[in-house]
């Protein structure tokens, strides 16, 4: 697929029909047999994505068959960690359209989660999407609606909620260890250690980065080195901020 990305194409309202043309073929491919390995496609294979690749690879009933990242260097590096040859692309639509992909793992910046997850559900793919689920409440509700409409299995990466430590603390509070809890407040003040994300001038993006695809549904703007790849978490346009990122892990 070589179509240039147009931001009007990425509205959540239209995302649920974004890949419907592939839904029938994908559903047929999934019907091959319940005992086969789950064929995974990963969208976003840098920091968290590479960790998830390693975690899924430890399961004998999973097989990584496709990778997507807007940074060609990151994509090449990730492919070296997969035993077999994998399909590679910088456009997630190419990955979702594939008939040999059963489920999608999404580890992209927050502003991409809704569009990619809804598109995957519409294409009859199950989904694992990293937390936070979405950047806005509206997007989150649209994702839940899509999962129900297309009857997909969708899991959000809030795995720390399953930690025995937090489970025990939650139970102790319910048992009255702290008495009647009326108010709970939490604060998270952070900047990237050791000296913050800094100030960077606008510049041309690195040749190995598809900056237009990185921006996706957000307004077009010049590249800045203190936005991508990881520092987007301190920019409201691309992230629901660090409090939402970490706070959802600890609520029970």
TrEMBL record:
This enzyme's EC code(s): 1.1.1.18
UniProt keyword NAD present: no
Keywords, alphabetical: Oxidoreductase
InterPro entries recorded: Gfo/Idh/MocA-like_OxRdtase_N, Gfo/Idh/MocA_oxidrdct_glycsds, Gfo/Idh/MocA_OxRdtase_bact_C, NAD(P)-bd_dom_sf, TAT_signal
Top-rank taxon: Bacteria
One annotated GO molecular function: nucleotide binding
Annotated ranges, domain Gfo/Idh/MocA-like oxidoreductase bacterial type C-terminal: 196-240
Residues of the Gfo/Idh/MocA-like oxidoreductase N-terminal domain: 38-157
Protein name: Inositol 2-dehydrogenase
The organism of origin for this protein: Novipirellula artificiosorum
